[in-house]
Design a protein that fits this description.
- Helix 2 packs parallel to helix 3.
- The protein is an alpha+beta fold.
- It starts with 6 loop residues before the first helix and ends with a helix.
- It has 3 domains: about 160 residues, Aldehyde oxidase/xanthine dehydrogenase, molybdopterin binding domain (Aldehyde Oxidoreductase, domain 4); about 150 residues, Aldehyde oxidase/xanthine dehydrogenase, molybdopterin binding domain (Aldehyde Oxidoreductase, domain 4); about 300 residues, Aldehyde oxidase/xanthine dehydrogenase, molybdopterin binding domain (Aldehyde Oxidoreductase, domain 4, 2-Layer Sandwich).
- The chain has a 7-stranded mixed sheet with strand order 9-10-7-17-14-15-16, sandwiched between helices. It has a 5-stranded mixed sheet with strand order 12-20-19-18-13. Strands 21-22-23-26 form a 4-stranded mixed sheet, sandwiched between helices.
- The chain has 18 helices and 26 strands.
- Strand 4 and strand 5 form a beta hairpin.
- The longest helix has 28 residues.
């Protein structure tokens, strides 16, 4: 049976690792997936409450703790409910079955005669005097999970599918829920002097001047090119870190130009080239193509990264807003030469994530200092310019799409050609921490890699269209190096690829003299996809769409995230004058069984806002020795006043498997904006962000 179990259960077969009934009539549910803004913890709680028939308010959830929670890898790729949710459902159903079977023996009845109401056991609808807290014994937990117990059918759900409020929001809006708010005994504050680039060597550091600028007590921790300033007063160490930038001399730093920040830079770089899909064939019809780009983009988390660590009696404890506590624990133990069982990593909430940002780096920074200064809690806080300048950014991405057309203007052969750096350089995949590169004897960087297509791909993500084309392929040029460190950001290659393909579909529709919606539907047999497109087209009144070039545009696009997760269609109405102004957005999403529709709506709409910001505004700029977009003025994001009205519908499909939806609206939103801009202006802008300057350039071409 184990080959059909979720990976989370295969790696954590003991039931007591997941569930425990505690005093106070509560249930401790332990999971490896963590809360990074997506509302996953309340959804997982709802699943357990449903299967065990207890009130969801009784569940205390422990998420991301290497001492007490199961190892579920990283919280990424919209898999928390697909994988962890399925695991919690199976584990909870199995515990309920074990307990009721033993109680039935005690009462000399059939388990089918027993029911559960908020944890109390009833026989023929009458109280038995037993409940989970009085009856469950150690033996009920002490066996491997089999996965053989069928969970409840969706028709019996009372909690799943309901908009249950999140428990973490009150603390978050009152300002006491984040890692930045943690106060520990014997706490010291720390800031970093960053190595400008890998292989840069610190040849001089004026510590006297730094101490003078700090105007207070500091301790300088220097290990090779790793430099930290530590002290009891946060303001003092902040002053030291700011002053140190101009009081340090480095040699061997890289030199960058603005051209390094453009996706076109990758075209002439050494790359690992491969073909995914059908082999190329000689064209017999008309071939058309177009190129679309997206620059390097940042996570732009609302709060800079933070990490806490303390080393006492040979044991290191770390708090981090990492996406993966177990991978981080393993890396820290290896880098510091500690036994794995002497390192504990606990997740703490951070303000923004959406991928591999600076959280893990800040945690290692803190751990290195704590290992050097034991018996204190080291609170390592990054500065805003440090967050923008040194977090792993998402790689620039160039997508060329080409189609051979039949006599009716429909593709019979399709190629998506991608040039990009690695979309994933987490340490578990060979990427290096900043501190690891700065410490003495840094390891050589691993060969650039990307997730395989079985896991959704990286640069190739969503690069294969789901239309009914006879032949289709991806040609992937994975750059062997990038000007700056890159790693995963929401959707990986899905946004630039969907932007390219769905904008190109509009271009092909115009070439064929067809309406873009009708053109899509003429080549799409997937019933779930067709339903979404028809739904959104009806709600935005697509049939009454006005002429091209009026300054007001309506665009539409769709995709299925990773070609195997949730389906989403998005339509955008906007106006273009000096700037692009979004007026309304319509979306419809099919994610199968939805656990918490309120949380799902938040994810869907949050993805739309994030994608709109990236499409219209966001670009990491490079020059000199690194990133130059170091603040909110040089890296603008969508503001509250620019958020459009969003109308969301979620397909009711409780009998279908749950599909990950956190990133499903990302690509369609970008493409819908691109198509709406063309509808408004009559000219196509193929390079993101769609800024005023790029629009002006397109208009005069």
């Amino acid at each position: 049976m184990s080959d059909t179990l979720p990976l989370s259960i295969i790696n954590n077969r003991r039931l007591e690792k997941w569930l425990r009934f505690d005093a106070g009539r509560t249930l401790r549910l332990a999971v490896g997936k963590v809360e990074i803004g997506q509302g996953v913890l309340i959804a997982l709680s709802q699943i357990a409450a449903e299967e065990l028939d207890i009130d969801v308010g009784r569940i205390d959830i422990l998420a991301g703790d290497t001492a007490d929670a199961p190892d579920e890898g990283s919280t990424s790729s919209s898999q928390s409910i697909e994988v962890s949710g399925r695991s919690v459902r199976l584990v909870s159903a199995e515990l309920r079955s074990r307990v009721l079977a033993r109680l039935a023996q005690r009462l000399n009845c059939s388990p089918a005669d027993l029911t559960v109401e908020d944890g109390a056991f009833l026989l023929d609808n009458q109280p038995t005097g037993h409940d989970y807290w009085s009856f469950v014994a150690d033996a009920d937990y002490a066996a491997d999970i089999t996965g053989l117990i069928a969970p409840k059918p969706p028709s019996a759900y009372k909690v799943v599918g309901q908009p249950v409020p999140r428990k973490d929001l009150i603390a978050k809006v009152s300002g006491a829920a984040f890692i930045h708010d943690i106060v520990r005994p014997d706490m010291l504050h720390a800031r970093m002097l960053r190595q400008p680039s890998r292989n840069a060597q610190l040849i001089a550091l004026d510590e006297t001047a730094i101490r003078r600028a700090a105007r207070g007590e500091i301790r300088v921790v220097r290990l090779g090119n790793f430099v930290a300033f530590v002290g009891p007063d946060e303001t003092v160490v902040q002053r030291a870190a700011v002053a140190a930038v101009s009081l340090a001399r480095w040699e061997g730093t890289r030199r960058l130009t603005p051209a390094h920040g453009e996706a076109s830079w990758f075209v002439d770089q050494p790359s690992d080239d491969r073909l995914v899909g059908d082999a190329p064939v000689a064209a017999t019809g008309t071939v058309v193509s177009a190129v679309y780009t997206r620059p390097f983009v940042a996570h732009a988390a609302m709060a800079p990264s933070c990490g806490l660590a303390e080393f006492r009696d040979g044991r290191l404890e770390v708090w981090s807003h990492t996406q993966g506590v177990y991978p981080l624990r393993n890396s820290i133990a290896e880098i510091l030469g500690l036994p794995t069982d002497k390192v504990v990593v606990r997740h703490a909430h951070g303000a923004g994530c959406y991928g591999h940002n600076g959280a893990d780096d800040a945690a290692l920074d803190a751990a290195v200092v704590a290992h050097h200064i034991p018996n204190h809690c080291i609170r390592m806080q990054w500065r805003r310019e440090e967050e923008f300048g040194f977090e792993p950014v998402s790689t620039a991405h160039r997508t060329r799409v080409a189609a051979e057309l039949d006599a009716g203007g429909r593709p019979v052969d399709w190629t998506t050609e991608v040039w990009a750096g690695s979309h994933v350089q987490r340490p578990i995949y060979g990427g290096l921490f900043l501190a690891q590169e700065a410490l003495p004897n840094p390891p050589a960087p691993a060969k650039a890699g990307d997730p395989p297509e079985a896991n959704g791909g990286g640069g190739t993500r969503n690069g294969t269209p789901l239309y009914d084309f006879a032949r289709k392929r991806i040609v992937h040029h994975l750059a062997l190096s990038t000007p700056v460190r890159t790693s995963s950001l929401r959707g990986l290659g899905a946004l630039p690829n969907v932007f390219a393909m769905e904008c190109f579909m509009d271009e092909l529709a115009e070439r064929a003299g067809m309406d873009p919606v009708a053109y899509r539907l003429s080549m799409l047999t997937d019933a779930r996809a067709r339903h979404l497109i028809e739904n959104v087209a009806a709600r935005c009144n697509w049939a009454a769409r006005w002429e091209v070039g009026t300054g007001r545009g309506l665009g539409l696009a769709w995709s299925r995230y990773k070609n195997k997760a949730a389906y989403a269609c998005v339509a955008v109405e906007l106006e273009v004058d000096k700037e692009i102004r979004l007026n309304r957005v319509w979306t419809c999403v099919d994610a199968g069984l939805v656990i918490n529709p309120d949380g799902a709506t938040n994810q869907i709409e949050g993805g739309i806002v994030h994608a709109a910001s990236m499409t219209l505004k966001e670009q990491v700029t490079l020059d000199g020795d690194g990133i130059t977009s170091l603040d909110w003025a040089s890296y603008p994001i969508l503001t509250f006043s620019e958020v459009p009205e969003i109308s969301t519908e979620i397909v009711h499909a409780p009998d279908l498997p749950t599909l990950g939806m956190g990133e499903c609206t990302f690509g369609p939103t970008a493409a819908a904006i691109g198509n709406a801009v063309y509808h408004a202006l009559g000219v196509r802008v193929r390079d993101m962000p769609l800024t005023r300057e790029r629009i002006a350039a397109a208009l005069v071409r």
